[in-house]
Hints:
It is found in: Cell membrane. The protein has a single domain (10-309), classed as Rhopdopsin 7-helix transmembrane proteins (Up-down Bundle), CATH 1.20.1070.10. It contains ten helices and three strands; from the N terminus they run βααβαααβααααα. The protein has helices at residues 20-50, 57-85, 93-126, 131-134, 137-163, 180-184, 192-225, 230-258, 267-291, 294-309; strands at residues 10-13, 90-92, 172-173. The chain has a three-stranded mixed sheet with strand order 2-1-3. Helix 1 packs parallel to helix 9 (267-291), helix 3 runs parallel beside helix 7 and helix 3 packs antiparallel against helix 8. The radius of gyration is 21 Å and the shape is globular. The N and C termini lie far apart (52 Å).
Amino acid sequence: MAAENSSVTEFILTGLTNQPGFQIPLFFLFLGFYVVTVVGNLGLITLIGLNSHLHTPMYFFLYNLSFIDFCYSSVITPKMLMSFVSKKNSISYAGCMTQLFFFLFFVVSESFILTVMAYDRYVAICNPLLYRVTMSPQACLLLLLGVYGMGFAGATAHTACMMGVTFCANNVVNHYMCDILPLLEHACSSTYVNQLVVFVVVGIDIGMPTVTIFISYSLILSSILHIHSMEGKSKAFSTCSSHIIAVSLFFGSGAFMYLKPSSILPMNQGKVSSLFYTTVVPMLNPLIYSLRNKDVKVALKKTLNTYSFS
């Protein structure tokens, strides 16, 4: 169903490329990415659920990170795969707004779950004696509610503003998904409010987590440097390194896409940037956290041995 102030009832997504020779190879490439993403994230969720020694605040948040990665990859990738094998990859107005809402909900939630994970590491390393009290089950639940609350607020603000835009008759969107900036290119009405919301809300959703994570890891680094044991330093760095890699990949690509003027970042380059954080990052996160984490490796071996024995 189209909005009352818009003549557009559907959008046509151009996808990543219009070169026929690349369609099938890209289809299988991103299908492979999606399979790895689904298996990796659902595998990590299952592993954490089955192993009681992973039922700690750190892995509780990692469990939710995997859930978020699985969900927002599933919101985007299947529709993108359709663009490689169909002549006309159309999406209804209602479907487009729905995809936009859930994409924003999960991507904003990811930025704040990464922030909470940084805070968790700060408490664990800088205030270990107070860790159980500070990161109690009640506190973890409240932090998680805050994560999804910020996701809902950000998605609602952007989607509500987008539904107030009047779109022109040209409904061909130069992208593989319904995203804010590509849709605004087809607006016939003023987009001042939308652009203001983008800079304010995205600034909060990237700026607040970035500052919090930076402060957390500055304090963590200061605390690590005061550890006299090399083994203790190595263990602390190992605990944080996976999270630092995940944070850098996610926030770096997101900031590059949304915080640069469109005149500096053409839409074709924007597609590549958004591809990185919508497809590549959700695939890499479970690999980063499992390959660099001894507890996860031990849990995986234990689970495989249990089922092999059974």
